[in-house]
Structure formats: C-alpha cells, structure tokens
Amino acid sequence: MPLPIVAVIGRPNVGKSTLVNRLAGGREAIVHDQPGVTRDRTYRNAFWGDRDFQVVDTGGLVFDDETEFLPFIREQALSALSEARAAVFVVDGQAGLTDGDREIANWLRQHPVPVVLAVNKCESPTEGLALAAEFWELGLGEPYPVSGIHGNGTGELLDLLVTHLPPPEQIETEPESKIAIVGRPNVGKSSLLNAFVGENRAIVSPISGTTRDPIDTLIENGDNRYRLIDTAGIRKKKNVEYGPEFFGINRAFKAIRRSDIVLFVVDALDGVTEQDQKLAGRIEDEGRACIVVVNKWDAVEKDSHTIYEYEKDLKNRLYFVNWAPMIFVSAKTGKRVENILALVDTAIEQYRRRVSTAVINEVLEEALRWHTPPTNRQGRQGKIYYGTQVSSEPPTIALFVNDPKRFNDNYRRYIERHFRTELGFEGTPIRFLWRGKK
Ligand code: GDP
Ligand code: GDP
Fold it and tell me: What ipTM is given for this predicted complex?
C-alpha cells in the first residue's frame, strides 16, 4: 500500500492552504499560483507520530456559485476524495456556518471517506470552543477549533485524523514493480528469465501455486524489488508441437493484466509477426508500460546500419507500442541483459508520473499555437479550455473541450505527439479523456 492520502476540502478562503502548510510542516510541494481554474491538487508529505501520509489541497468547493469552471473544480475535489483515506473539512469559525458549508457537508456524507471537521481561524482557545459549537449542526462529529496561522488545536486534530490512517507496517513506500515477460513461443522468454534471475538476487515467492512450482519470481536489484509474473508458465517446457492456436495467448493476456510493465520479447531473426501485433495491441489496450526486448541479437549478421534499420522497421510494425523503448539483447550470451532493469525503472517512473496542471496547460497552449483545432463542416471550431492529469498508471489527462466530436483522430494524435515531445513519457502509454461541457 502506498502512502495514504488525506484530502483537505472546504470553501475558498477558509484557510485550507494555510492549514495544509501547517500539517505538512512547510515541506515542499509543487504549487501553482495561477488564479482560479488551474488551481491544482498539490501533494505534500506529512507525518504525525508514527503515521506517514500525504496531504492534498483541493480547489475551493463552490456549490452555489455558477461559474463556468465549477464542474472542473468539483471534478478535482472528487478525484482527490476518491483516492483519499480520510478528509479534513475546513470551515471558517470567524465567518460562522454558511449555506456553502452545509452543501459541502451533505456532499461529503455521500462519500464513504471518514471526515474530520476543522473550524479554522480560532486563535483564542476559549473563544474557539464557542465558535466551533455551531458546527455540530453539520452532523460530521465533533468540530475541532484550530488556527492554521498560529497552530493551536492542530495537534488534537491530527490525533484524531491519524486514527483513520493505516498503521506503518501496512505501508510500502517503494512498491515492487510487477513485470510480465510475454512473447511468442521460442522467442527466448525462458532463456531470458534464466539470464535475468542469474544476475539478480532471486527470492522465493510468497505467492506460490505449490512449493515446487511458484507462479511468480521475486528479484531484488539495489533497493528495488520486482515481481516477475507467471514465471511458472514461462518455465514449463512444452514437448508438444505447437498447433496454430497454441501460443498461450490467454496466459499472456492474463499476465499483462496483472503487470505494471511488460517485457515484450520479439525474435530478431523472425521479426514481427501478426501474433506480435496482437500482443502489442493488448498491451496498449490494457494501458501497461512496455519495453520491447529484441532477443537473439547474437544471431543477426550486422553492419553499422543494422540496428537503426531494425529499430525503424520494428517501430513501424509495432505501432501500438511505438512509445516503448527498444533494447537489443542476447539471452544466450547475456549481452545487454543487465541493462533491461534500468529501462524498466525509468519506464515505471514515467508510468507513475504526475504532471502539474500548470505544466500541462503550458504544453497545451503551445500545441494550440502550432496547430489550431479543426473546424467542422458547419464552420464550428474545436476549443480546448484546459487540461489536468486525473490519474496515473498510466498517466491520464482530461482535456475539457467545447465538443469532443470536433476533434478528429489526426488532431488527437497530434496532441499526444506534442505531449510526448515536450514531456517524454517514454515507456508508458498516455490516455487522453476528451470531455465536453457539462
Ligand atoms: P484557502 O483558499 O482555503 O486555501 O485559504 P487560504 O489558506 O489561502 O487562507 C485564506 C485567508 O484566510 C488568508 O488571508 C489567510 O491569511 C487567512 N487565514 C488562514 N488561516 C487563518 C487562521 O488560522 N486565522 C486567521 N485569522 N486567518 C487565517
Ligand atoms: P520461449 O519459448 O520463449 O521460452 O523460448 P526459449 O527460451 O525456450 O528459447 C527458444 C530457443 O531459442 C532455444 O533453442 C534457445 O536456445 C534459443 N535462444 C534463446 N535465446 C537466444 C539468444 O539470445 N540467441 C540465440 N541464438 N538463441 C536463443
């Protein structure tokens, strides 16, 4: 389990960011000072006692004010809440209870996330209790008087908050990366697995089918841990002739689904076949990170151009995963096998990456300047208002537009290309969600 997330929610100006600063002890965050719409979710590490967590500040929730961007703000808060283990609902003790607070409270009650109620701007402890009392009415339990500016009351608030968070032993800060090794029969998967495990420390898998036949293999490299998925299926030697249907494609599909990243093994001698293209399509559909491992490179006659031509040709034929880096190895001699994990690490980093809303909108503006969106037959032009990353694994970016139908495949591909040119994302697919006006 990664670090639990605490969402800080409330109307604008109640003191959410001040309180987040206080809870995170001034530790660094990616902050965006753009006004209004592009107010981002910013994550900060925090701890209290033995509990580590992340605090995320959401844009101010405004329920009664029908501004154009209201749905976007709400969407941000909603996605912050959906990944949160607990929420701090901040209200303004000096302003007193407002209709906005009531609406947010109603909304919060519809979500299963435990809520701690912070009545902010209560500098004086005695007065604070009186100010806070009014908020019992919200039905969210005890209102805690606090002052984000001065810090009083925050200790009690944190004491309560951390009771909703998982204990430290359940938190794994460096999650293991789950790797699927897939490819047609005879491309060299089991040879590669042996070369791989030979070089890294193998640990017996705790999840095993039988003791003799573990399903997965765990390996360690430095501080990183990797789970090689379904290695039993790879090791199993088949003395049978391969019928046209046999290639364990369902087993491969299952392994892909369980993985974070796929080592997609192709045979340098055979090149890319139709079955390879099927696998590539599946990897992209499932949204997994990918490295293309071109095996049996020792058996290829080479001159100085060979590798470039090969790479170009393979990228064309494996267009579903043309964002995947390629490595040319020999499982037989071991050549370059030791470089695979470094590629895995960077691809996984990209797969889990979060890009700030500010940066996404800079890239978007630039893309729009180079190529304006298409105009349909009625002369109506597509408009992109703004974009924000809504999730990772793989990176998923919502683009808020006037009408998704006005963006053809060409333009969509152009946007993806532009994002890749500007931001990299090598080794991971990117998803774009084209959202029309609500
Ligand atoms: P947000 O929009 O909810 O993130 O609110 P901010 O953190 O930006 O704070 C809004 C305003 O309230 C700012 O002028 C803060 O200085 C003020 N403020 C925040 N916390 C406190 C507090 O504990 N006491 C008082 N008196 N003012 C506060
Ligand atoms: P799998 O069916 O994908 O697991 O493939 P295997 O690992 O069983 O390999 C199939 C055949 O290819 C075996 O005869 C291997 O010796 C051979 N092979 C595997 N890797 C290499 C390599 O890097 N170079 C060469 N020349 N042969 C290889």
Answer: 0.55
